[in-house]
Design goal:
By secondary structure, the protein is an alpha/beta fold. It has helices at residues 8-16, 35-38, 41-48, 56-62, 124-129, 144-149, 154-161, 169-183, 200-215, and strands spanning 28-29, 52-54, 71-73, 79-82, 85-91, 100-106, 111-116, 135-139, 186-191, 219-223. Helix 8 (169-183) packs parallel to helix 9 (200-215). This is MBL fold hydrolase.
Length: 245
């Protein structure tokens, strides 16, 4: 499981839809220490003996609060193999001690999924990390105009808009377009949408219109809901790589 930022019962019922129990988890990979990513991690880890997997800096911050959970240190950039999956992390710019994005490689078919939430801007390291991904799960946190006109206090707006804040719809969709132009058709889920400064309808409509106009490339787009399981992915035929550019 990647992050555990919602309540224990919600996670348990989401796993149950796949006939899984919390005790079936092999590990909880944490992207960073903010509460909307770790809320239930300690409880699951301790109760069901599930290791928390994170880089040493993140573990260090979390374990000031959770000294008695099992853990696995995964240095940023390293890979952890579990069953048929290879899990690799890469740096993202965000106001946490050592935040990461996550790549999942499914060895039997060669499919790759990349997850980036909580990133203030798109870096070359992020572009390199998501190369060839068949599924992109990408933060589309806010609509910039909505955020600027909204009720958040100035300091919070500045934090969100900063280089170590959150990706806007515009920044996320620009990266999606780039990915489609370079790597061809893929599936993308917009994630980590702000409740105040975005709506699933707005983000999805903007992404669909922009990707169609800018790339002409078929990208299957959806929005991952904030607090319940909403999207699932069955890898189809691996898309062909485009060698046009
Ligand atoms: Zn965060
Ligand atoms: Zn977050």
């Amino acid at each position: 499981m990647i992050d555990a930022g919602i309540g224990l019962r919600l996670i348990a019922s989401a796993l149950a839809t796949h006939d899984l129990l919390l005790s079936d988890l092999s590990g909880i990979v944490l992207t960073h220490e903010h509460s909307d990513h770790i809320q239930s991690a300690h409880a699951i880890s301790k109760r069901y003996n599930v290791p928390i997997v994170a880089n040493p800096a993140t573990l260090n911050v979390i374990y000031r609060r959770c000294t008695d959970s099992p853990n696995i240190k995964l240095a940023t950039g390293d890979r952890w193999s579990i069953g048929d999956l290879d899990i690799e992390t890469f740096p993202v710019p965000h106001d946490a001690v050592e935040p990461v994005g996550v790549n999942l490689y499914y060895r039997p078919s060669g499919h790759k999924a990349s997850i980036i939430t909580d990133a203030g801007h798109v870096t070359d390291a992020m572009r390199a990390a998501i190369r060839g991904a068949n599924l992109l799960i990408l933060e589309a946190n806010h609509d910039v105009h909505r955020l600027n006109a909204g009720v958040y206090p100035g300091y919070l707006k500045a934090r969100i808009l900063s280089d170590r804040g959150h990706l806007s719809n515009e920044a996320a969709v620009a990266l999606l377009c780039e990915h489609a132009m370079t790597h061809g058709p893929h599936t993308a889920w917009l994630a980590h949408l702000s409740k105040e400064n975005n709506t699933p309808k707005l983000a999805l409509a903007y992404a669909k219109a922009t990707v169609a106009v800018e790339t002409g490339c078929p990208v299957v787009l959806d929005v991952a809901k904030r607090d319940k399981p909403s999207v699932s992915w069955t890898p189809g035929v691996k898309p062909l790589q485009l060698n046009l550019f």
